[in-house]
């Protein structure tokens, strides 16, 4: 086994050998082949499902050779057809769709890239793989060419067809292997399986990524995600699973989505586990009102009509789109659904949404966010999720936690479906602790509350709902969305435009200490900041408390690597802004020595010391090996307790000088942390 592998990678390979792949290999083999990740990982899983580096490199070359020889690139379709005719090639990889020719009573296949159609397909093949009839499926196919004098005879003969997906699946083995992982390890394994580096995400951000998977494991689940461009909203639905279909929001009709009354053929919802609508936002988009009405009924009742007949289906729906404005702007002038086409900006339609992913919390994808570690072959994970679609785990919290009686049946159903989906993904053995159950329930409540709060802006007839639950201690806990917490002055308004300036993005928990500090000087208090909250600055947290000090002692054992040293420098910048030019301030750092690169750590400190000297700040440091506490003490009598030290920000692109999060702290996402201010 490769000695460079992380402990988690070793564990993944030990318990899921043959079902995992190193995620960076997809890019290594893809080249210019326009195929989904699950197709590539299917091939990689056949040849690279190992931890041995030599075997991996051999497998990569084999997969590259297979793609080069058998994948049909549209630009080379003519050459491939010629090779098949000359008996030089018969096995190809292509997206194949099938239609029934009712005039001749035969099924006929169309090969998307090869550019041929009307290829006869046995009815038994279509019966076995019905998704061929709707949207098409990536397959490995054996095809021959036999010319006939009869012009009506198609020369192409399909000998065999194999959809690219797993042939077998051991769910009990999966459950047994899951027990070998801690909750944190398992979540990180899932994040790596999606293709991301878990170190780039906090716990809340990881859950937001995992919510995107719920439509694949929960029947008739309706999800929406709106946010800035480039956050990977549609990636899961286009690349992740052979059981999902991604379509453009403006390119779907009633017959395509539900049923063709003329032919009686079912649409997408009859064959796919998840139907996702890409580019769903856009006010100017033309939308068929009849489609919206049928979608409303389907999303609420899981049924749709074909003439006088009522049909049911289990497909979940996901809607993803881009927003043009900031959260504060939307809350000030309209609502968080503002970007949707008018016919979808309808309270009856939106009330069917079970969870609203706040896409503005998801970072724009950067190169360092992708993983080069191991994760499940995505097709295996897709089968895991599909296997659980008939399960219902919404009852797991009922003996420990009780939802408020004010929460309506529709709201309750939405919360339960999200909770059940997260349990399936994270705790398939149903062995979550009470604390873990509560965390997922709160997360599910928040996602539905985000929908309901915006509905009350759109339609004034919706009554206010108290989204709360009773914990095991019998205490009622009220749940708030992060936007509600961050923008309290504009969150509860009707959404009507006015000329008042937007409130500053100071978190609600910080507002009172800040106002008091500005009015009459700093006072004792406590601040709690939630994960992914923005609007936090060292100037706001510490400025009033270090002003006037001539000696400041910062104790933080983790000022070792670059981003931690940068946080230290930004704290010193805060001191510099509140320090009179003619005064001198001593800043002493008490920290622990970096075990493996102490030279680099010393280099950081020496550069900071040299930089601060000309502005009257004397920086020094002391190494202590036994410290654990993190706090700031000033000679003016303040002690500031820091549960995370200065390391309060999520990862951002510190190398991009033009990234606004690099320049301004308030535009960075935060980790969850607390600060306590004590007067000594």
Strand order across the largest sheet = 18-24-23-22-19-20-21
Topology, number of strands: 24
Gross CATH architecture of the largest domain: 3-Layer(aba) Sandwich
What's the alpha carbon Rg, rounded to whole Å? Answer: 29 Å
Overall description:
Residues 513-525 have a biased composition (Basic and acidic residues). It holds the Pfam family MIT_C. Residues 535-679 form the MITD1 C-terminal phospholipase D-like domain. InterPro entries: BrxL-like, BrxL_N, MITD1_C, MITD1_C_sf. The chain has 680 residues and is an alpha/beta fold. Helix 8 (183-194) crosses helix 9 (203-211). It is globular. The two termini are 55 Å apart. The model is unreliable at 494-509 (pLDDT under 50).
Compact summary:
Residues 14-145 form the BREX system Lon protease-like BrxL N-terminal domain. The protein contains 25 helices and 24 strands.
């Amino acid at each position: 086994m490769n000695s460079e592998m992380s402990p988690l990678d070793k564990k993944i390979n030990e318990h899921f050998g043959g079902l995992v792949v190193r995620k960076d290999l997809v890019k290594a083999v893809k080249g210019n082949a326009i195929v989904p990740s699950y197709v590539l990982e299917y091939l990689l899983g056949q040849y690279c499902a190992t931890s041995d580096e030599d075997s991996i490199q051999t497998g990569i070359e084999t997969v590259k050779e297979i793609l080069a020889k058998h994948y049909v690139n549209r630009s080379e379709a003519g050459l491939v057809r010629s090779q098949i005719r000359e008996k030089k090639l018969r096995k190809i990889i292509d997206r194949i769709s099938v239609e029934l020719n009712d005039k001749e009573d035969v099924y006929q296949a169309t090969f998307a890239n090869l550019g041929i159609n009307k290829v006869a397909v046995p009815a038994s093949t279509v019966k076995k793989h019905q998704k061929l009839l709707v949207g098409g499926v990536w397959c490995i196919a054996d095809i021959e060419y036999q010319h006939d004098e009869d012009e009506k005879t198609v020369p192409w003969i399909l000998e065999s067809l194999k959809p690219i997906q797993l042939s077998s699946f051991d769910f009990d083995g999966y459950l047994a292997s899951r027990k070998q992982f801690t909750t944190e390890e398992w979540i990180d394994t899932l994040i790596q399986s999606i293709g991301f580096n878990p170190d780039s995400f906090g716990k809340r951000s990881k859950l937001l990524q995992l919510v995107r998977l719920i439509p694949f494991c929960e029947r008739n689940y309706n999800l929406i995600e709106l946010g800035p461009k480039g956050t990977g909203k549609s990636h899961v639905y286009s690349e992740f699973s052979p059981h999902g279909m991604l379509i453009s929001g403006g390119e779907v009709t009633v017959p395509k989505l539900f049923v063709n009354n003329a032919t009686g053929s079912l649409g997408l919802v009859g064959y796919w586990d998840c139907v996702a609508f890409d580019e769903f936002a856009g006010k100017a988009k033309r939308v068929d009102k009849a489609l919206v009405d049928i979608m409303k009924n389907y999303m609420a009742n899981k049924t749709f009509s074909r003439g006088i007949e009522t049909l049911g289906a289990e497909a979940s729906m996901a809607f993803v789109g881009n927003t043009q404005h900031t959260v504060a702007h939307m809350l000030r002038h309209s609502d968080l659904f503002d970007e949707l086409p008018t016919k979808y900006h309808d309270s009856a339609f939106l009330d069917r949404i079970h969870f609203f992913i706040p896409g503005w919390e998801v970072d724009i994808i950067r190169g360092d966010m992708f993983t080069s570690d191991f994760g499940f072959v995505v097709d295996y994970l897709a089968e895991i999720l599909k296997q659980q679609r008939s399960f219902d785990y919404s009852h797991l919290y009922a003996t420990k936690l009780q939802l408020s009686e004010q929460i309506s049946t529709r709201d309750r159903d939405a919360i339960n479906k999200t909770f059940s989906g997260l349990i399936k993904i994270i705790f398939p053995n149903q062995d979550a602790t009470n604390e873990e159950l509560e965390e997922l329930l709160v997360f599910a409540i928040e996602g539905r509350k985000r929908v309901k709060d915006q509905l009350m802006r759109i339609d004034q007839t919706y009554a206010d709902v108290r989204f709360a639950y009773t914990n095991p201690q019998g205490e009622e806990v009220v749940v708030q969305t992060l936007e509600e917490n961050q923008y309290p002055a504009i969150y509860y308004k009707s959404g009507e435009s006015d000329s008042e300036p937007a409130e500053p993005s100071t978190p609600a928990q910080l507002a009172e200490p800040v106002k008091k500090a500005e009015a009459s000087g700093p006072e004792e208090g406590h601040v709690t900041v939630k994960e992914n909250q923005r609007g936090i600055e060292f100037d706001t947290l510490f400025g009033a408390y270090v002003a006037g000090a001539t000696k400041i002692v910062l104790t933080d054992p983790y000022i070792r690597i670059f981003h931690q040293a940068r946080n230290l420098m930004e704290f010193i910048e805060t001191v510099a802004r509140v320090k009179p030019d003619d005064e001198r301030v001593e800043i002493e750092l008490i920290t622990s020595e970096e075990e493996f690169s102490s030279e680099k750590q010393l280099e950081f400190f020496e550069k900071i010391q040299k930089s601060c000297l000309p502005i009257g700040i004397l920086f020094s440091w002391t190494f202590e090996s036994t410290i654990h506490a993190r706090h700031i003490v000033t000679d003016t009598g303040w002690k500031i307790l820091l549960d995370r030290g200065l390391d309060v920000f999520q990862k951002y692109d510190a190398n991009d000088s033009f990234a606004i999060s690099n320049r301004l702290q308030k535009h960075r996402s935060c980790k969850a942390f607390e600060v306590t201010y004590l007067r000594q």
